[in-house]
Amino acid sequence: MAENHSNVLRLRRLGIDTHTENMIFVRADSQICRSEGFTSNTRVVVMNGGSSIIATLAVITSPLLLDGEASLSEFAFESLQVHENDQVTVAHLRPILSFRHVRAKMFDKKFNELALQHIVSDITKGFYSHIEIAAFVTACSGDNLALDEVIYLTKAMINSGTKLNWHKPLIVDKHCIGGLPGNRTTPIIVPIIAAAGLTIPKTSSRAITSPAGTADVVETMTPVNLTLEQIQDVVRKEGGCMVWGGTVKISPADDLIIYVEKALDVDSAGQMIASVLSKKAAAGSTHTIIDIPVGETAKARTKEEAFLLEYYFRAVGLSIGLEVEVLITDGSQPVGRGIGPALEARDVLAVLRNEPDAPTDLKERALKLAGLMLETAGVATKGTGNMQAQQLLESGEALTKFYRICEAQGGFKEPTPAPIRHDVLAQTEGTVTKIDNRRLAKVAKLAGAPKSPGAGIYFNAPLGTTVQQGQPLFTIYSETQGELDYALDFLSSENQFIQIDSYT
Amino acid sequence: MAENHSNVLRLRRLGIDTHTENMIFVRADSQICRSEGFTSNTRVVVMNGGSSIIATLAVITSPLLLDGEASLSEFAFESLQVHENDQVTVAHLRPILSFRHVRAKMFDKKFNELALQHIVSDITKGFYSHIEIAAFVTACSGDNLALDEVIYLTKAMINSGTKLNWHKPLIVDKHCIGGLPGNRTTPIIVPIIAAAGLTIPKTSSRAITSPAGTADVVETMTPVNLTLEQIQDVVRKEGGCMVWGGTVKISPADDLIIYVEKALDVDSAGQMIASVLSKKAAAGSTHTIIDIPVGETAKARTKEEAFLLEYYFRAVGLSIGLEVEVLITDGSQPVGRGIGPALEARDVLAVLRNEPDAPTDLKERALKLAGLMLETAGVATKGTGNMQAQQLLESGEALTKFYRICEAQGGFKEPTPAPIRHDVLAQTEGTVTKIDNRRLAKVAKLAGAPKSPGAGIYFNAPLGTTVQQGQPLFTIYSETQGELDYALDFLSSENQFIQIDSYT
């Protein structure tokens, strides 16, 4: 189409943050809306220099913008790398050709390799709206992806982003599919494995809906926002790292897909397997341990489900040249005692420092995974991995390596729990028989976690503990009195969510 | 949860129009975001007095809003019926229970009647985000809905909105599933049927992506934005109406579903049938004629597809007590000569006024449908409907009735084509053998249709016309020189889209 000067707009920054959705705002009565027929929710291409993004248009019916002006959502300003007063050209979006494969899938046709490559490539380029991604996710959900389709999807995702090469024959990694609260084995396993002489370039995520993600926890002890070059330096020096994965664009398509899956609360086995294994492969891993917790609130609710997932993980791993070992673990209760970044970090340090009151469940879990990793990598013979990991931990070698990795990442600091504290006391004596983990997490979030890294809960009475009346069950930590009040408000309005049965 | 005063926000109107999506804007660093953990894309409940809506939150990182203030999208201001300076309370959204049925459908479980009632009811209440509706649409797409599920969905939609009762035993209606350009039979059929003494309370839609919808066309001759009471008055007086359906909330859930289907460009047969028949039943119709055009760009591409649709329409109609007759028609080329509201209205009036150059294709199509309607309603004996319709049209009775309906709706006026006109001439002599309708529609839209009701195209050379070099092929109509230039710009940048083969 001939370019029309009315399609060129000057940018103003209104500061509208719509998460990962590219949006453009223009006046409803502007020339561009009249001439192009743009209305709210039109999908458009926004160009600046040689770069372009796809965005959803919203019209403004107030004097926030003038004719000839446009604003972008914050994410779109970043994606297009433009600034206030820059000029952008806006045009209609041509139909997304690859979406016809998604439509065909709705009619139960199978994806072939090329179709999934096109789809993932178009999602990576930002061509798909959230609505279109939701359709793709739904069409792939349930048992709708056969093994070969999962393999194609995995390969397409590997090819869609940055690929790392560590120039070593053996790179180990781990992943837990469960999202089990407090399951912070990573900062314990990484130093054990690195101390054994292996290479483990571990990236982790931040919290999305939970009071803390692994990256949030590690960040209370050492910087985690490293550039790819910095990560490579750390790994070259120390054999391992514990960083946030968000700066390395391993799989941009997958990030968008996961966002929509979370919004739908849908876990599609095929997509999850492709997501996990493609990230491991693209990050340069050769040997990966997958931790599958089984429990009521975990992703795998029964052992049967876990076995099926194990089969898929191994088969897809085989097809992409990644050695995959699966460990099926207990996912019935949270791990450790802290909930919130600094408080979980305290658990991690207690284990690494071999403190007598360190949470044994966290320690045992970390040793089991590290042991399997040592065996898989051929550093320990079968059956001796756990022992060797224990030796590396209890000798203090893991702690030393932990400090060295932290130094390489920018320095170690003690995690600082928040200053305002409040003990919640047992109202009767007896034995703790049930804990509502979801409500506990809510209290931790109301107290400020993870935005205030010191906020959260420290749990003093795990399942089976015998308590006296008036004994602290848990302590709430917060940065401000207001946040504490907010958590206490919620506590007082809720039924008791720690069940104590009296002695019989 | 104990209500916290920080959850009460004062509204400011920023004039952000996000189509049919409820959105709420708050400051990123506001107390409510900190205490509730709200981030962009959190789904929240917004309450005012006894009313509430569900909205998607977006945070503002600029001084557009103060702490304690919020803005809503224009649609949300309307949905919640609030104004600037009103106070709203914002809270987390509880999980939408009915969505578990959608998840189950992804795993190939069948919907039962209760599940579809809950889903449609929750969509009606605005509980589903566009992402969730996209998942529902996708899960129902292809052949995923069995006949009983289509029947449950139809019944659920009938019960979700306003139901009209005309207190008459026989109410006729029609619907064309095709979206064939220029297919404006409605303003011809309604007066014929009403002149025959039947009751036909016809509601129509406006253009979404086309240069004109039936309501846009009728609006160039008479008001179409009538309240339900006004519609009832018109029908009581004249036996028929030709109004916009948007003011009558027949099926609010369906409007949202259709919006997402259009965004995905997905036509699910099951959902389309439920949508059409539920609207007819809720609007009080007892006898409905369904026009299924068959053609390359129509919904039904082959006669076989049309036959299958016919079966579903009849079977679902039977189960909800609606008599359905299906007419399978030619959908291979547009109907009439005008493209754009006033220009299509001119075609309609030419037929009603029996002008010698009235488009015969439009006339014949209208008579066929009206004839079947008369037969179905028992007013004409089988085989005589077409003739009776023709008699009512050619005698001028239909025109008289048309004027009377217009008077009842608020008065008749002649449609006014836009003043600036430009003839596009044949560059060679020969016979018109091919017309690219999509590009013609684009020119009409660039010229200003449907926002400028007089703008569009009048087509002088339908398929098969013999033309001389320099003879006008079509005329562009626009309100401003700028819009005309814009259409001409597009024309000059495109290859010839009317094919003229020279005499052989």
Tell me what you see in this structure.
Two copies of one chain form a homodimer. The first copy, chain A, has 504 residues and is an alpha/beta fold. Chain A has four domains: 5-92, Barwin-like endoglucanases; 99-156, Up-down Bundle (Transferase, Pyrimidine Nucleoside Phosphorylase, Chain A, domain 3); 172-248 and 283-409, 3-Layer(aba) Sandwich (Pyrimidine Nucleoside Phosphorylase, Chain A, domain 2), CATH 3.40.1030.10; 420-501, Pyrimidine nucleoside phosphorylase-like, C-terminal domain (Aldehyde Oxidoreductase, domain 3, Alpha-Beta Complex), CATH 3.90.1170. Chain A is 40% helix and 20% strand. The first copy, chain A, has 18 helices and 19 strands. In chain A, strands 1-6-3-5-4-7 form a six-stranded mixed barrel. A four-stranded antiparallel sheet of chain A has the order 13-16-18-14. A three-stranded parallel sheet of chain A has the order 8-11-12, with helices on both faces. In chain A, strand 4 and strand 5 (51-60) form a beta hairpin. The longest helix of chain A has 17 residues, at 303-319. Chains A and B meet through strand 2, helix 1, strand 5, helix 3 and helix 5 of A and strand 2, helix 1, strand 5, helix 3 and helix 5 of B. Chains A, B: This is thymidine phosphorylase. Chains A, B: It comes from Pontibacter anaerobius. Chains A, B: Pfam families: Glycos_transf_3, PYNP_C.
